[in-house]
Design a protein that fits this description.
mainly alpha; 7 helices; globular
Length: 165
């Protein structure tokens, strides 16, 4: 992994709870809230200058801007929700570009698992544990992508903490 382990260890205590909250709010309300996305981005903005050389820090921040622009276009085209686009942008600075292939494979696995877990819970009495959650009551075929995106970021950072450069 190209993400330095030191970076992952420093950001994990802040980002991990936020990722859990994103999964919860997307399951319960089908929303990824702006304050949470801003908090995820802010952790990088505040800690990044201490963890990266300044030029590398600026490139990581550029990833945020690029992913946000692409996300806005994809949202406007109806391909993804606005919260998903904002979350991807906030998560982008944490990803080392050489790890992008690994991240995509990790996302594919997490997405399949999250989709299966969500659909099984929705179709069985498990959904009665949280009967008011929007993700199984009012959304029809929609899937809360924050339930897959946020664990992907959390797992990526955990892997980097253990196996990072």
């Amino acid at each position: 992994m190209s993400l330095p382990a030191l970076v992952a260890w420093w950001v994990l205590p802040f980002v991990l709870p936020l990722c859990l909250y994103v999964a919860y709010t997307d399951l319960s309300r089908m929303k990824i809230t702006n304050p949470t996305v801003i908090a995820i981005a802010s952790v990088f903005v505040v800690l990044g200058p201490f963890l990266y050389p300044f030029d590398a820090y600026l490139w990581q921040l550029a990833q945020l801007a690029i992913v946000l622009l692409v996300g806005i276009v994809l949202n406007a085209a109806g391909v993804m929700g606005a919260g998903d686009a904002k979350f991807l942008a906030a998560a982008a600075p944490y990803v080392a570009l050489p790890d992008l292939r690994l991240l995509m494979a990790l996302f594919a696995a997490v997405l399949l698992a999250a989709y299966a877990v969500h659909r099984i819970a929705k179709a069985t009495p498990l959904h009665k544990m949280a009967p008011t959650w929007d993700s199984w009551n009012t959304t029809g075929r929609k899937f809360p992508m924050g339930f897959a995106l946020s664990p992907t970021l959390a797992l990526y950072l955990c892997l980097a903490a253990v196996h990072g450069s």
